[in-house]
Amino acid sequence: MCGTDHSMFFENLIPSNAESLVLMMSRVSANSGVLVLCFELNLGLEVFSFCIVYNLCENRKSERRTRLVPMEQIDDARNRKNQIAALMRVFVLSKSFKEDNIPCKMEEGLFLGSLGAANNKFELKRLNVTHILTMACSLPPAHPDDFVYKVIPVMDRQDTDLRQYFDECFSFIDGAKEKGGGVLVHCFVGKSRNATIVIAYLMKKHGMSLSQAMEHVKSIRPRAGPNVGFMKQLQDFEKSLQDQNAANEEEDMKSYKSKGLALQSSTFAP
Question: Which residues are catalytic?
Fold first, then answer.
């Protein structure tokens, strides 16, 4: 190496907002000053690997351009094209996080947003957000000294059982509100996992139907939309709420009739 500090280069090049970015291998050629870093990148819905080849020497300016090379079948042009395209999508996503960094207010004390919003300490403080509910894997708290965090390690997959966490999430949200604070519910992109939790919460707390809760959330954050598997879980949740409400009404009716008979009996007692 030639003693140059390249930390800013790699910080800007490698997205820090992936669900997990694992350095699988690094190799430096002493003769040519070429650094090879091989990564495995997990985006939740997509996992792929890539290599970054970078010439570290200042005096080799003609060779300092960065090249992206796939780990498998490096000479395969089609595979290289696919891997580079995937990485470019990550860069675009990374840029969107910087732009999508304002929490969306669903109701008093409840906000929805992406990882960008979860990292926006200034805006979170301004909105009186005190608690952050993270619905994602491998996303450590960005500001652990400033907010109360709860992390639910789930993937945005159709076969993920998100419903098992509903009550746990509801309690966290209610706990923050009862203390006079606010909650940001976020995932990676701010579309599926967190939207599912907020929609379910509105259904449970306000008696909204699934369609009403969906319409409310999407009117504020249009990109919000649970995946197919989560939608099925929300439909099942709606049915369970309807069944519970029906059972409660039946129990109330029985109690009302019982009290009415008791009152009638006491009225006509000798």
Answer: 187
